[in-house]
Design a protein that fits this description.
By secondary structure, the protein is α+β, with helices and mostly antiparallel strands. The protein is built from five helices and seven strands, in the order αβααβααβββββ. The protein has a three-stranded antiparallel beta sheet. It has a two-stranded antiparallel ribbon with strand order 1-2. A two-stranded antiparallel ribbon has the order 6-7. Helix 1 packs antiparallel against helix 4, helix 1 runs parallel beside helix 5 and helix 2 packs across helix 4.
């Protein structure tokens, strides 16, 4: 049994390391924003971001802890407590008061994620069943896949020391409506599917100067299957 468990652990480690290379980035040091999944219920909310932990590896462990602690899919089974894993890997006791992590986001890179994985697999966990540790490794594979999808649907640009990151996600369809692009005589009984999207905008001042947000607007464009702008569709401009 111990040999099978050892081999399973090695496979999980290799799967996690390979999963890190699936992020849509050009190099291992390119920035990646890890963030919670976009939900339809998140609209209209804002969060002030807090400074990260002293080390990026500890910040990644904390983010993994928070992602699992806030899981809403109900697939945690009898292994829902991740406290033992987290407190042991960061060398703290459960009596330690963790500051709230309201934003649950972290700028990192594939190289740093791989280093966190190596650290996690090197720690000798006492009092935690190996099956539980393998369960959390499988959870990490799922979370990495979700984050890769999130980053593939994100764009980032820096202008005059202000970094703006936009993330979008299709969250389903709305009630079909009558096709409006056809003449009235041709629209009888023809319904058009309307897709619903959620957006998250992150604004960061990475310069040494103070800045003030005076206004903002979004220009939403439709793209073709080839990723080019669809000239047949009108742009949507939102002002705030």
């Amino acid at each position: 049994v111990s040999e099978k468990r050892r081999l399973a652990t090695i496979r999980l480690y290799r799967i996690l390391q390979r999963s890190c290379r699936s992020f849509p980035v050009k190099g291992p040091d390119d920035p990646i924003l890890l963030q919670p999944l976009l939900k339809a219920t998140d609209w209209g909310r804002h969060v002030i971001y807090k400074p990260p932990s002293p080390t990026i590896v500890e910040e990644l462990f904390r983010l993994f802890y928070e992602f699992n602690d806030n899981d809403e899919e109900g697939d945690m089974g009898n292994l829902s407590s991740i406290d033992d894993w987290y407190y042991e890997i960061v060398g703290k006791t459960k009596e330690s008061q963790l500051p709230p992590m309201t934003s649950m986001t972290c700028w990192t890179s594939t190289k740093q994620i791989q280093e966190a994985i190596r650290t996690a697999f090197r720690v000798p966990f006492d009092g935690i069943q190996p099956n539980n540790l393998q369960f959390w490794a499988i959870r990490a594979v799922k979370i990495l896949h979700e984050q890769q999808q999130m980053w593939a649907q994100s764009s980032m640009k820096i202008t005059k020391g202000v970094k703006v990151t936009a993330t979008t996600r299709c969250i389903g369809t709305a009630t079909p409506t009558v096709v409006s692009s056809l003449p009235p005589a041709e629209t009888s009984g023809i319904l058009e599917t309307r897709y619903r999207f959620a957006y998250r905008i992150r604004v960061e001042n990475i310069s040494e100067d103070s800045v003030q947000l005076l206004g903002r607007y979004w220009c939403i464009k439709e793209l073709t299957a080839e990723g080019k702008e669809d000239d047949s569709k009108d742009d949507i401009v939102l002002d705030s």
